[in-house]
Description:
The protein has 271 residues and is an alpha/beta fold. It has a single domain, classed as Alpha/Beta hydrolase fold, catalytic domain (Rossmann fold). It has nine helices and six strands. It has a six-stranded parallel β-sheet, sandwiched between helices. Helix 1 crosses helix 9 and helix 3 (51-63) runs antiparallel to helix 4. The longest helix is centred in the middle third of the chain and has 19 residues, at 98-116. The chain is globular, with a radius of gyration of 19 Å. The mean pLDDT is 89.
Amino acid sequence: MSKKFGILTIHGMGNQKPDYASALQQHLYKKLKDETIADISFKSIWYHGDFQVHQDKVWEHMVQSGNPLDQQRLRKFFLNFLSDAATSEFRPGEEDSSYRRIQRTILRQLNALHAELEDQDRPVVIIAHSLGCQIISNYIWDAQRNKGIWENQEPTEFQKLGTARLLITSGCNIPLFVSGLEKVIAINKPNDLFEWYNFYDRDDILGWPLKPLSKGFPNSYDNIVTQDREINTGWTPLSHSDYWEDRDFINPVAKLIQAVHESLPADTSTS
């Protein structure tokens, strides 16, 4: 059966498994209409890859070094989380860098999604968490400007996510990556129908509102982000890990997806 639009997920920091989005998919499908589900092609970007192998090796060296370390559980948590962030941004200009390997992982899933959509440039909904928000923003930024893996070549409209209808970010830590810049600039709006909804919990120290990042020019965050939505996923900083399981996130996201489906024409041979 022909699919009318795609949902693309991208995970955040930490030891993620390839099936990290299966619970999210199940939660959303319980809220969506059957005819909507039938029209969805659901794909997940798993970029964690070999990160964990290297992180585990570093941790093993540390605990076997003979140097006493307190708070080992917390140390390992931060080693995994902060290492993901640092590694994902490392040497973006080099062909064999982690940065570019991640971009190629995104591209492979985009190409697979395009094939499932019968090679038509149909609408896409992106759901990102934590570090994944920065990574997908980097990918779109580079594709729009022929940077990263797109140096000296031109992505198709679908490959640069030009048909994205929704970008849904949760526990987004983009401010941690751009706060040192003189001018903070968002991605260009991929199309006139594009909307960006950012969900954050005030107790989540890694999740931030985005609209205050910059304002007063065409691609300031205040102009590109449609809405920051404060939700309650918990009462401690551990709420950072709970967005995709929480009804305060699932319910409004399902409504946004449902609205995209209802806006599609009967024949979606083009976006």
